[in-house]
Amino acid sequence: MDKLKKLIKYDKKIMTLLNVIAIIGIITGSIFMVVLSKSDKTTVLNSIKDFFDKLINDKFDFISTLKNTMISNLLFSFIIWVIGISVIGIIIVIFIIFYKSFTLGFTISSIIYTYSIKGSLIALLYVFPHMIINILIMLYIGSYSIKLSIILIKSILKKDNLNFKLFINNYLRVYLISITFLITTSLYESFIAPIILRYFCELLI
């Protein structure tokens, strides 16, 4: 048990790598708005304005948002978790972390581009704390997924006898903790965050 816990404990080097990937993703997403064509910028601007207009005019679909948010969060976390067991998905985990971070950065920069200085506060309220927590959860699952992939590869190559049942039970516990947080943030993003956003948008927009 002690040996297994030592193996499953997330690797600081892996976490550092994923943090770097996340930072690069956020920065890349933030500057991506700058390099878009004029027509693409207009499309993004109209999409954001349409979203906040619906929010202010009480036309926001809470249930649809919950469904989409829940599916997205749980699907990505499940993919990362399964990839860890399958041994073959380290690159895919890195890509998912980059994609989620890129989306976060692009969202922030798009809102600021649309509403200028006022957009800074709106963007902060839009992403904090739920989207930040989601990124941290993805980093948490991703670090374990990559670590366990490496453990399995080493076990196969060295033909070590690994208690696979105990191994999966601990890995499943990590996943269950993660989806508990993701469900909580999905509920917050769908029902609480829009109300807070609406209040400030009515003052700022």
Describe this structure in words.
- There is one protein chain.
- With 205 residues, the chain is an all-alpha fold.
- Helices cover 88% and strands 0% of the residues.
- The chain has helices at 2-8, 12-35, 38-56, 62-86, 90-115, 118-127, 130-158, 164-204.
- Helix 2 crosses helix 5 (90-115), helix 4 runs antiparallel to helix 5 and helix 6 packs antiparallel against helix 8 (164-204).
- The longest helix has 41 residues, at 164-204.
- Separation of the first and last Cα atoms: 57 Å
Tell me the radius of gyration.
20 Å
> Which structural category do the helix and sheet elements fall into?
mainly alpha
Report mean pLDDT, rounded to a whole number.
85
Shape: elongated
Number of helices: 8
H/E topology pattern = HHHHHHHH
What is the β-strand count?
A: 0
Compact description:
The chain has 205 residues and is an all-alpha fold. It is built from eight helices and no strands.
Topology, element by element:
Elements: H1 2-8, H2 12-35, H3 38-56, H4 62-86, H5 90-115, H6 118-127, H7 130-158, H8 164-204
Helix pairs in contact: 2-5, 2-7, 3-5, 4-5, 4-7, 4-8, 5-6, 5-7, 6-8, 7-8
Kindly list the characteristics that best describe this protein.
8 helices, elongated, mainly alpha
